[in-house]
Amino acid sequence: MSVATTRPQSVVTRVASARRTRGRAMLLAAGDLLALAIGYGVMRLVTGTVVSSPTSAPMGVALALAIVAIPVFVALFAVYGLYDTDQRRIAVTSFDEATSVFHALLVGSIGLLVLDQLLRRVSDWRVSSAVQAVVFVGVALVLVIVARGALRSWVFPRIFRRRRALVVGTGPDAEFFQRTVAAHPEFGFDVVAVLSETHSSSELQDAVARLGADRVVLSSSSTSHEEMLELARSVRQPHLQVSIIPRYHELFTANATLEDLAGAPMVTLPGTSLRRSSWVVKRGFDILVSGALLILLSPVLLGLAVAIRLDSPGPALYRQARRGRNGSTFTILKFRTMFGDAERRRDDLLHLNEVDGPLFKIKGRDPRVTRLGGVLRRWSLDELPQLWNVLRGDMSLVGPRPFVVHEADRITGWGLRRLDTTPGITGPWQVLGRNDLAFEEMVKLDYLYATNWSLWWDLRILYQTVLVVLQRKGAY
Length: 476
Known about the structure:
This protein is of the alpha/beta class. It has three domains: 3-159, no CATH class; 163-247, Rossmann fold (3-Layer(aba) Sandwich); 276-471, no CATH class. It is 52% helix and 11% strand. It has 17 helices and ten strands. The chain has helices at 3-6, 9-51, 59-79, 85-88, 98-122, 130-159, 172-183, 201-211, 225-235, 276-296, 298-311, 371-378, 386-392, 405-408, 428-431, 439-451, 455-471, and strands spanning 163-168, 189-195, 215-219, 241-245, 257-261, 264-268, 317-323, 329-335, 396-398, 424-426. The strands form four sheets. A four-stranded parallel β-sheet has the order 2-1-3-4, with helices on both faces. A two-stranded antiparallel sheet has the order 5-6. Strands 7-8 form a two-stranded antiparallel sheet. The longest helix has 43 residues, at 9-51. The N and C termini lie far apart (53 Å).
């Protein structure tokens, strides 16, 4: 009999979990080393003619410095906790680590500048400069985030066992967690069991060991406060993560402030209205990005328009009335992906509708979609003309979903707060499920966005949108 089979299941689980954690950390470190090395090479290539001087260190010295310095940057990443994220969090997004990566790169680059000043006093050699530091931080920041995103999206799911979550609670919050994890396989989680809150602490511990759970998710329920506390305290173990779905989670996002109030955490929600300064920043960002993209993509837009006209009869652009900010109506622009009689045929195809609420969507092969239209939809290229809507101010790059007028008019009550913000080409609904989301879930996400806006959240959504489009998730 092997040693592994003689050990308690809980010990085997802890060992396996620790190995997976180390494996993820080692692969991330390897990816960081490669990204930093490429970033250093790009920096030397770009700045060689800018800072080159008779006092620059010889290439051999510069290479030796890089061999020593790059592992130091990786050590700084470890200090900033960048190799613990995958163990602590359920939904890991490399973009969320950008601030920590930037700080670590900045600290390391400042250290190199200090070393440069010291060496100049001893040998008159220059090993770094302000220009090189700025270029390296900028290039390395992008490369590290991209490398980490690639590892988490395409490598980890193929070589590591999916993590196992045990849910405690049978109410709506527990169902929400199960739906979310099922809809996002990139999280790498499987719900292995759902236990009611009536189970005792010993039964919960036995289930964790028997099922080899990596994480326990406690959802709010009708169970008393003291009983849930007892469950949470009893189940905590060194290699077991415990997550708690807080009450009223439908009201706040990561933009909320968590503060310490005499030892007790308190969540403070931001104001629901967009300050004038925030609106100016958001609008300025929209104008800058949409204008630049329209110029850069103009040959692509023209080519697609010609291809659409050649593929099927009718105009290249499709125009439709949508509900905008404060209940206004605007005309949205999209590349036409259907035949000209698509609206007339809608009633004949209602039996094929695969979404709820007032929405109409055929997830399979919609007979109204043209041959080229199917390609445009899969890669979301039909959305590109909306950049003109953004430039005009009808839409934003990020915002609530621009529902068709008759769809939007079905929304009442608190859901109308979504109209406080300009609708967007993309938004939380786009990166969290697109057309796979229920209508009610879309409205909730729009409400959260409108009442919790931040520029950082916009940037995060834009980054996630690129990944979603490349994976062609939920595009029909």
